[in-house]
């Protein structure tokens, strides 16, 4: 259905007038005026707790934002996604990552096929295989159990599994060391191959399309490396594939008995729940992998059934929209206060920016508002000692999502309180800031001269009033990790609906791929690189020159 331009909708216009009133709001005052602000602007679901009270908004703002979500058809679009309708319009596909975590026995028929049954048939194969590798009955060519697993994939075939394997580090099998090679840069593969042994290494070639240039080159290199010691007939014990493209897998030389399939209705960046998560299942065991799926399913059920005003992904999306649209926030910083979530910001970059980094509507018209902010971040407390200076006192307002677990998965004394204290202190500092009067009083108490105080006050003042969300879980477990990923998936979906964006394609990455192929031919052959601009020509000539002995 064609959507009207966002800024012409009744609910958007109501929000715009409200935003004009809210322009000068100070969060300090909002908190002082309403002792119920914390309970009013928090929600819990699927083992997660979201505190969005440290944003420049009030209950009325939320009401208006919910009106907007309703007017843009979030509920209908959500239901269409869960039902398997072809909501990926530009590729004419269903969007069914939620079906990957449906409980066994639940039917969902799409195009005459029970996708629930298909999903569980593959999960059963994943279980059988992972059990064998983990219990040491899957042997390498010389009869030894596998010790090292190398996932070769890129984008969604790398970021999700890598992030989840790191996040669930404390559940990992003690014998199995997991490695991830994604970059076409040979230094990536070289560094990993230097650590492993031909006899005990298993490669997973993970690619939805099985045509991605980086993955294919890395897989060929891995194959060549293996064949330095192993024989052709040993390949089947050391190479498995995860893909939707059976023909290409078999052409590559991987036995299709060793292939774990998935389907075109799973977007690459939404694929960690499919067999693309094989490395996760191998690392933590099928049982915990399944628990991760159950955590995501719990968030799916919440998203599917909770009223919009109490719906965590919807609220996270709406608050993000408010900050982007009416506070002019051009970026969103993700700050996990959990070292094991180290790769979570990188994972969210693809999820959010590849989905909603678009400038036209589904109908092909320019979107009449800004769309996806730049997503970036780093674990706390490291981030505090790197770039938080700018977030506190720089000229841009950058909203932050703080993510933390109330309990650690280690028992090292003193660390967890120190970590949480920093997390909560930062969100308080961003909200409150420090006024010039407060700075002055502090410096007077230290006995500084008035001249020195005048000099220092502007530098030591924090504007505050800077927005953040805090997402808490009891502990980082397979279930809470599953819920956390699903939370952000649905948040991205809701924002895409509000902007009326085609969130499930990624044509924007194609142009560079095509040009890279052309330039690679020029670098490798005698083709004259004269057809580009002078900069590109010059760089190509330099690279070719560097090859001359
Ligand atoms: O080029 C972008 C992209 O298509 C991503 O969307 C995808 O996750 C990645 O490449 C890898 O694709 P594949 O799994 O098909 O190798």
From TrEMBL:
A single Gene Ontology MF term assigned here is: glucose-6-phosphate isomerase activity
Q: Where in the cell is it found?
A: Cytoplasm
Keywords for this protein: Cytoplasm, Gluconeogenesis, Glycolysis, Isomerase
Top EC group = isomerase
Name the principal localization, coarsely classed.
Answer: cytoplasm
Q: What is its EC number?
A: 5.3.1.9
The catalysed reaction is:
alpha-D-glucose 6-phosphate = beta-D-fructose 6-phosphate
Tree of life domain: Bacteria
Part of which pathway? Carbohydrate biosynthesis; gluconeogenesis; Carbohydrate degradation; glycolysis; D-glyceraldehyde 3-phosphate and glycerone phosphate from D-glucose: step 2/4
- Active-site residues? 354, 385, 513
Q: Which HAMAP family match?
A: G6P_isomerase
In the record, the note on similarity to other proteins reads: Belongs to the GPI family.
Its name, as the record gives it, is: Glucose-6-phosphate isomerase
């Amino acid at each position: 259905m064609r959507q009207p331009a966002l800024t012409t909708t009744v609910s958007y216009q109501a929000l715009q007038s409200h935003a004009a009133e809210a322009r000068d709001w100070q969060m300090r005052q909002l908190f002082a005026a309403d002792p119920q602000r914390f309970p009013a602007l928090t929600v819990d679901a699927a083992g997660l707790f979201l505190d969005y009270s440290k944003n420049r908004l009030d209950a009325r703002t939320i009401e208006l934002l919910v009106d907007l979500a309703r007017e843009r058809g979030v509920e209908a679009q959500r239901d269409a996604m869960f039902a398997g309708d072809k909501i990926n319009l530009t590729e004419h596909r269903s969007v069914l990552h939620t079906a990957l975590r449906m409980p066994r026995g639940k039917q969902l028929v799409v195009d005459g096929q029970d996708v629930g049954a298909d999903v569980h048939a593959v999960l059963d194969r994943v279980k059988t295989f992972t059990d064998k590798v983990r219990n040491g009955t899957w042997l390498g060519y010389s009869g030894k159990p596998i010790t090292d697993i190398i996932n070769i994939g890129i984008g969604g075939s790398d970021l999700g599994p890598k992030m989840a394997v790191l996040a669930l580090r404390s559940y990992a099998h003690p014998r199995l060391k997991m490695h991830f090679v994604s970059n076409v840069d040979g230094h990536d593969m070289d560094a990993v191959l230097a650590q492993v042994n031909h006899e005990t290494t298993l490669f997973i070639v993970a690619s939805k399309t099985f045509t991605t240039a980086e993955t294919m080159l890395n897989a060929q290199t891995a194959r060549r490396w293996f064949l330095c010691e192993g024989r052709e007939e040993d390949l089947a014990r050391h190479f498995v594939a995860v893909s939707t493209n059976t023909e290409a897998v078999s052409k590559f030389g991987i036995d299709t008995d060793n292939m774990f399939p998935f389907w075109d209705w799973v977007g690459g960046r939404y694929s960690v729940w499919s067999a693309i998560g094989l490395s996760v299942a191998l690392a933590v065991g099928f049982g915990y992998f399944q628990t991760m799926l159950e955590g995501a399913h719990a968030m799916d059920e919440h998203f599917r059934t909770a009223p919009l005003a109490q719906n965590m992904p919807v609220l996270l999306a709406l608050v993000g929209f408010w900050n982007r649209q009416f506070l002019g926030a051009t970026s969103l910083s993700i700050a996990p206060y959990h070292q094991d979530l180290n790769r979570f910001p990188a994972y969210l970059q693809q999820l959010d920016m590849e989905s909603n980094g678009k400038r036209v509507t589904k109908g092909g018209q320019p979107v009449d508002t800004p769309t996806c902010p730049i997503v970036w971040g780093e674990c706390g407390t490291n981030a505090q000692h790197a770039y938080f200076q700018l977030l506190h006192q720089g000229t841009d307002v950058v909203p932050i999502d703080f993510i933390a677990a109330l309990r650690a998965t280690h028992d090292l004394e003193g660390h967890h309180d120190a970590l949480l204290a920093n997390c909560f202190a930062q969100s308080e500092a961003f909200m409150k800031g420090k006024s010039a009067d407060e700075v002055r009083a502090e410096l007077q108490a230290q006995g500084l001269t008035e001249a020195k105080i005048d000099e220092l006050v502007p530098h030591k003042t924090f504007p505050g009033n800077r927005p953040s969300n805090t997402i808490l879980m009891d502990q980082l477990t397979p279930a809470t990790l599953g819920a956390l990923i699903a939370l952000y998936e649905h948040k991205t979906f809701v924002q895409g609906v509000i902007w009326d964006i085609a969130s499930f394609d990624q044509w924007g990455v194609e142009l560079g791929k095509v040009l890279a192929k052309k330039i690679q031919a020029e670098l490798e052959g005698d083709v004259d690189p004269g057809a580009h601009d002078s900069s590109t020509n010059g760089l190509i000539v330099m690279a070719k020159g560097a090859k001359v002995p």
